[in-house]
Amino acid sequence: MKVSKEFKVGLFMVIGIATLYLGFNYLKGKDFFSSNDKYYAVYANVDGLNVSNPIMINGFTVGRVSSIRLLQNDGDKVLVELDIRGDIVIGDSAVATLNSDFLGNKSISLTAGDILKPIESGDTLIAVLDKGIADILAESAQPVANNLEATIKKINGVLDKLGGAGGKIDSILTDFQAASSVLKPTILDTKRQLNEVLLTYNELGINVNSSLNEVKPALKNFKIITDSLRSLELNQTVARANKALEELSIAIEHFSRSEGTLGKLINEDSLYNNLNNAIISLDRLLIHFDTNPKHFLAPLGKSKSKIEKDRRKEAKGN
Q1: 113 vs 120: CA distance, rounded Å
Q2: CB 116, CB 95: distance < 8 Å
Q3: Number of alpha helices (DSSP H) and beta strands (DSSP E) in the chain
Q4: Which of 204, 253, 263, 298 could potentially form a cystine with 258 if both were Cys, beta carbons 3.0 to 4.6 Å apart?
Q5: Integer Cα distance of 255 and 249 in angstroms
Q6: Residue 238 to residues 6, 125, 232, 235, 272: CA-CA distances in angstroms?
Q7: Under DSSP, is residue 214 helix (H, G, I), strand (E, B) or coil?
Q8: Are 267 and 274 in contact (CB under 8 A)?
Q9: Are 40 and 48 in contact (CB under 8 A)?
Q10: Is the dihedral of CA 61, 63, 66, 71 positive or negative?
Q11: Over its length of 318 residues, how does the chain's per-residue pLDDT go in tens digits?
């Protein structure tokens, strides 16, 4: 059987259209070759949710949004059909939360709930609308707006008070302008006097410098003279000290040679022994005088024989 060219073209067109249809629906999230379950969620506002947006559990994609319908008989709520993989068990307390990321991309975050009490395909899940970035920013900006409003009210109150005191401020400015006109001549006169003082100070500095230049040679000569006198006095003192040391050395050497009375006294023992004996005799004389004063103080004294006789009597008595 011969196939015509028209039949081949028609068959090719049908296959192409079918492939295009299947591919387009696959890109939209429909999988014709898998057994997915259908669940539903009703939202008051889907806020830009589109078909084929992902459905995730803890960031893992388990399905896609298959269709979105408006329920005009139920307060214009939106019915969202959730196409979820058949191997995912959904419990009776499952929650489908509609949220968005920072770039505005929409997705549904699914909480599986109690999987020990699974629900059937076609049941309706608990729908929750998460806060968007705009809502979070609005809540964060509300306290700032309130504070800004209170600040503006305070500024307005201050401005109102300043408006009532405008006349006083003008009066103060007028007085200030008058005072500045009075002070201006005084400032000019003070400036002139200050310039004169600076000029005099400069002249005085020049004179002082010239005087110092004249005095410097005299100071240099005076320093030379004082240095000479100091060195001269020091030399004389050193010479006198050396002379005294030499004389002391000669005297010590003279004493060590036993020359003169002092040298003999220092170096010879005989004078020491004679002095020692004289002191001992003097001591005996004083003891005898103390014990027998009659031998010396009686009238006309006693002779040597009487003194010896008295001594013998004393010796017998003892």
Answers
A1: 14
A2: no
A3: 7, 7
A4: 263
A5: 10
A6: 147, 123, 10, 5, 40
A7: helix
A8: no
A9: no
A10: negative
A11: 566 777 777 888 888 888 887 776 666 555 555 578 889 999 988 878 888 889 899 888 888 888 899 988 888 899 999 888 888 888 888 999 988 776 778 888 898 888 888 888 888 888 888 765 555 555 666 677 777 778 887 887 777 766 666 666 777 777 777 777 777 888 888 888 888 888 888 888 888 888 778 777 777 777 777 776 676 667 788 788 888 888 888 777 766 665 556 566 666 667 677 778 888 888 887 777 767 666 666 555 566 677 777 777 777 766
> What predicted TM-score, i.e. pTM, was given to this entire model?
0.37
Look at strands 106-111 and 54-57 and give their pairing: parallel
Tell me the one-letter amino acid at 263. Answer: G
Question: Rounded to an integer, what distance in angstroms lies between the CA atom of residue 40 and that of residue 224?
Answer: 118
Cα dihedral 214/218/221/225 (nearest 10): -170
Dist CA 129 CA 124 (whole Å): 15
Q: Which two tokens stand for residue 205?
A: 């500095």
| Chain centre distance of CA 48 | 54
